[in-house]
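Appendix B, example 12.
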Amino acid sequence: MTDAVSPEELSRWTRRFAVEANNRAWRLAEAPSRTEAEDEEMLHCAHAAALHWRKVGTELHNARALMLLAHVQALLGDGRNAVMHAMEAFDFVTTRESPAWEVAFAHAVLANAAAAAGDRELHAKHYGVAGELGRDLADAEERAIFDATYRAVARTATILEAAPLQVRPGQSGAFEAAFREACAIIASMPGYRSHELQRCLEREGHYLLLVRWESVAAHEEGFRKSPQYQEWKRLLHHFYDPFPTVLHYESVPGCA
C-alpha cells in the first residue's frame, strides 16, 4: 500500500486549489466590507493562487494571479508590493494581444496599487483609462465583473499621516492595549486606507503612528470632527507627553 500520487493527479489537485483560492480571494476583494480575519484570508488566498498557478499554469495564469495579488495588497495598504506585482502583470497584458476586459483590469489594479503607494502621478495615469475602458466593454457580464473591482479602486492616491508618539513612562503596555481597542474606530472611518503602529528600538516609550488616508480632508475634517474621534481621544490622548505634532506626506514619484 502506498500514498504516492501520480503527477497527473497532483497536477489536477494543484489546479483545483489554484481555482478555489483565486475565486475566494476575488469574492473577498469585491465585498463591501471585511473583518480582520477575512482580510487575512484574502491575502493568504491570493498568495496561494499565485503559488499554485506558478506550478501548473501558463504565463497568462501567472499574470492574472499577480494582478489579483496586487489588488489585494493594495486593498490592505501594501503599496510597494502592490505596485511591483501590478506593474509585472500590466506589462504582460499590454505587450501582447489581450481582451479589452483584461486591459481594463490591468489599468484598474495598477491605479489601485499606485493609490496605496501614494503615487498620485501613476494613479492619475491609469485610473481614468481604466474607467473609460470599463464603460466601453460591450459584454454586460464582463462590464459587471469589472465594475465590482473598479468600485474598490481608490479615486485618489493616498496621503500618509505621520505622528511620533511619546508615551508616559511605565505606560507602554497599557497604551498598546488601548491602541488595539482603538484600531476599530479609525478603521471604520470614510477615507481610511490602512495604518501601522511602530515601536522604537532606541527610545523607550516612543512610537510612530502611520495612517494612510484618501485625502488630508478625510483625516482633518472627516475623522477629527467626527463623534468617533472623541472616543479615540478618550482611549489614547492621556498617554502622550508631550502631545504629538502630526504631519501629512505624499509619495515622491520614482523614489520608492
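The mean pLDDT is 94. The longest strand covers residues 159-166.
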